[in-house]
Amino acid sequence: LEREDGFEISIFADNLDAPRQMVEGENGTIFVAERGGQILALIDADKNGQIDSKIIVAKDLTLSTGLSIFDGSLYFSEISKIWKINSIEEWLKNQTDINELPDKNLVIDGLPDDTWHGWKWLQHDQQGRLHFNVGAPCNICLSENKQFASILRIENGQLEPVARGVRNSVGFDFHPQTKKLFFTDNGRDWLGDDSPSCELNRVDIDGQFYGYP
Question: pTM of this prediction?
Answer without folding.
Answer: 0.93
